[in-house]
Amino acid sequence: xxxxxxxxxxxxxEWIKVEGDEAFIGITDFAQKELGDIxxxxxxxxxxxxxxxxxxxxxxxxxxVSDLLLPVxxxxxxxxxxxxxxPELINKDPxxxxxxxxxxxxxxxxxxxxxxxxxxxxxxxx
Length: 126
Prior knowledge:
By secondary structure, this protein is of the alpha+beta class. The chain has a single domain, classed as CATH 2.40.50.100. It has a six-stranded antiparallel β-sheet with strand order 1-2-3-9-8-5. It has a three-stranded antiparallel β-sheet with strand order 4-6-7. A hairpin with a 2-residue loop joins strand 2 and strand 3. The longest helix is centred in the C-terminal third of the chain and has 9 residues. The radius of gyration is 13 Å and the shape is globular.
């Protein structure tokens, strides 16, 4: 399983890549494997400010629909529009082209509550 060292992780299997006061969010390799083939991504929260662990969208796979939870509080800036035509990018490249949203972080201290790669690996093996 792929767990990049340069990212932070939520217990709900989202990853976050921080760049200054902005961040990219997606679901982990573990999550996409559990969900199976992803067929649709819905995010209707662009330009909204949400609290940590609020639902910012959903991912629909062949087997199930799963809520996407924000790992930190912030404003949703952008949805990865490539997912409209190719939701399977999340399966193919969850940490790259399969990113889901870009956000502006409103409380950087919440990043301290997230897991590093080692702790996330332990979570998925539990």
